[in-house]
Amino acid sequence: MRRSWMQRTLFGAVVALTSSMGLGQADVICGVVAGVSQSGGTGPLLLGSVGDQIAYAIGTTSCNVGNVPLNWFQSGANRHPLIVTNIYRLEDGALEQVGVSWVKHGFCALQLNVCGSCSAVCGGCCSQLGVGCSDPYDASLNGSQTGLGPRFEINCNTGEYPWPFTTAGSSGNAVYKRLQVNVNDMDPLQHPNASFVGEAQYVAFDDAAAGNANNNASHRLINLGAFDPFTGGYRLIYNGGTVREEPAIFAWQDADPNVQLTPVDVPGDGRFWVGANATDNGDGTWHYEYAVFNLNSNRNAGSFSVETGSSPANIGFHDAEYHSGEPFDGTDWGATVTSSDISWSNGTDYNTNSDANAIRWATLYNFRFDAPTAPTTGTATIGLFGPGQAGDPSEVTLSVPVPEGGASGCNGADLAAPFGVLDLNDVQTFIAAFIGGDLLADISGDGILDLVDVQMFIADFLAGCP
């Protein structure tokens, strides 16, 4: 449900007024990212496999760190929290999302004290979570298919959802609706240097109404365990405790303190976290790595661009994989290179295809390239996909490390190290890029590889370096 500008203003004023009057706010966080005891240690529950997909479940313990009880009614729209879980892979200086779950609908709250003293609402399973109280949902419960609903019908910014939710009570094969990971994304032969991160995030209507939705995700490091031939998947073992109120993208910065993390708030909507890093390749070029995580923006993102000022190479993109009937298109974003920036986009707009591939809530997308210049501070732009209200922006910007302005190469044909010299390396690089469809060979910058690019490359190469 969308609110008009006036409704949103009034809604915010009411929240502020009730807070100032001492009426209080609910505030749910994930206090524990939990698992099951198994051979090798405690970790996510391995539930089986179908084809190349492995199903897991991550347990969660919520905590109400607010000062009024949090609603936890079993039935009815917008009356209980929702839980999503994800798995990410940390490898070779990048964090990529490799696992996505459906939404667990809460149904009652115990009144425990994992997060501190608990002002219990009742003596057992309650329709509210008391102030300071915690409520555990073990991994098998969060993996129970009948209580899992799709993400697409959730307004992650307001915590609103329909009731009953789609596919309520339905079940299927071993991986249906559960936290799915492709076996190839975990294979230690393909990813020998990888470790993993589990993440859990809560969404709740009264928590969002109080303005407390930005602290609802927590994460925990994971090591790869042994392969279980009976279930066809790898055991996962937690490495350390839960890092509260920080989504998994913070694990990237913990692994490399050079990673820059920036919160990006969308006016009238939710928050993105953007990670960025530039590393020296040791051959005269630099690798630029960006990750955009949508914490709770209901408008989502349909494009991402970065200033370059130099000729990017090895352009890459990685997205999350939806499953089990979520309606979203999984087509990879295309990249376009101009003289001033590189941009990735799903190639459409909301009115044309509202289910196009977008950075939706609780998902992380990666963007990367190499460039021949060292980093400086520049601008990245997130293009918002869903419609806003009158006066809302169509994009948001932030500062990130970008290649220094102007390529160190002498002209458009100088595509390979050593830069400042036109030689056989540049010819081979252009031919390989052109044949492979790599926009590095798009010398004209129009996003199309054609005869014009060949002619411009030849002209630049024959012109030579000054």
Major sheet size, sense and barrel closure: 10 strands, antiparallel
Q: Beta-strand percentage?
A: 35-45%
Overall number of structural domains:
3
Radius of gyration, in Å, reads 24 Å
What is the global morphology?
A: elongated
Q: Provide mean pLDDT, rounded.
A: 91
Poorly predicted ranges: 1-22
Tell me briefly what this model is.
The chain is mainly β. It has helices spanning 5-20, 139-142, 205-209, 249-255, 424-436, 451-463, and strands spanning 28-34, 36-38, 41-43, 45-50, 53-57, 59-64, 70-71, 82-91, 94-100, 103-105, 128-129, 134-137, 148-149, 179-182, 195-203, 217-228, 233-238, 260-265, 271-280, 286-294, 301-307, 313-318, 334-337, 341-345, 363-371, 375-384, 395-403.
Task: Please supply descriptive tags for the structure shown above.
mainly beta, 466 residues, single chain, 5-stranded antiparallel β-sheet, 3 domains, elongated, disordered N terminus, Immunoglobulin-like
Task: Walk me through what this model shows.
There is one protein chain. By secondary structure, this protein is mainly β. It is elongated and about 85 Å long. It has 3 domains: 1-257, no CATH class; 258-407, Immunoglobulin-like, CATH 2.60.40; 409-466. The protein has helices at 5-20, 139-142, 205-209, 249-255, 424-436, 451-463, and strands at residues 28-34, 36-38, 41-43, 45-50, 53-57, 59-64, 70-71, 82-91, 94-100, 103-105, 128-129, 134-137, 148-149, 179-182, 195-203, 217-228, 233-238, 260-265, 271-280, 286-294, 301-307, 313-318, 334-337, 341-345, 363-371, 375-384, 395-403. The strands form 6 sheets. Strands 4, 5, 8, 9, 10, 13, 14, 15, 16 and 17 form a 10-stranded antiparallel β-sheet that branches. The protein contains 6 helices and 27 strands. Strand 4 (45-50) and strand 5 (53-57) form a beta hairpin.
